[in-house]
Amino acid sequence: MLVVSDTTPLLYLARVGRLDLLCELYVEVVVPQTVWDELVEARPDAPGVVAVRAATWLRVVPDVSAPDDVAEVLAEIDAGEAAAIAVALVRHADLLLIDDAAGRRAAGELGVAVRGTLGVLVTAKAAGILVAVAPVIAALLAEGFRASGAVVEQALRASGEGPTSVGST
Predict the structure, then answer these.
(1) How many other C-beta atoms can be found within 10 angstroms of the C-beta atom of residue 91?
(2) How many secondary structure helices (H) and strands (E) does the chain include?
(3) CB 3 within 8 A of CB 28
């Protein structure tokens, strides 16, 4: 399974010590050069970046030109998200890991399957890799990860843990 990742899932999973979930769940995880540059090169001392840099299973791939018929959609979103979507399209990735709402909408419009950071946690629990998602969600939120209460509750329900308060776990 080929998975392309944008910045946020990598950064926040690394910050809470669960970057390993990606290599346990997916055969191949690639990161476009633009995403790598904005995550690792632009802020080498940021929390979580050392773990991302040390993840030898992550493969940085060159950016690709988006097909002409999707360039207009990608022009309206952040460069990192656009690069991740373009790589996912051109390489026929099975999944794109992305949290940004505009990026998720654009990817969906283009037929790219997406999953966010919380979706990774739900998948890891379903696969028996993660015992509980609530403590990891609480740790993510403590690190500054942003998700609405509705999205958190949806992830908890999907993992069979909801509806509970993340703060009480």
Answers:
(1) 15
(2) 10, 5
(3) yes
Residues 7 and 78: their CA atoms lie apart, in Å, by 11
Task: Give yes or no for a contact between 30 and 91, defined as CB atoms under 8 angstroms apart.
Answer: yes
Domains of the chain from N-terminus onward: 2-115 (3.40.50.1010), 118-168 (no CATH)
Structure confidence by residue, pLDDT tens digits, 68-109: 889 889 999 999 999 999 999 999 999 999 999 999 999 999
Only one residue has tokens 């993660």, namely 130
Q: Side-chain half-sphere of 106: how many Cα atoms within 13 Å?
A: 28
Query: Between the CA atoms of 35, 94, 151 and 25, what dihedral angle is there, to the nearest 10 degrees?
Result: -90
Q: Which residues fall within 8 angstroms of residue 44, CB to CB, at 6 or more apart? A: 53
- Which token pair is 132? 């509980």
pTM of the model: 0.93
Q: What is the pLDDT of residues 16-54, one digit of tens each?
A: 999 999 999 999 999 999 999 999 999 999 999 999 999
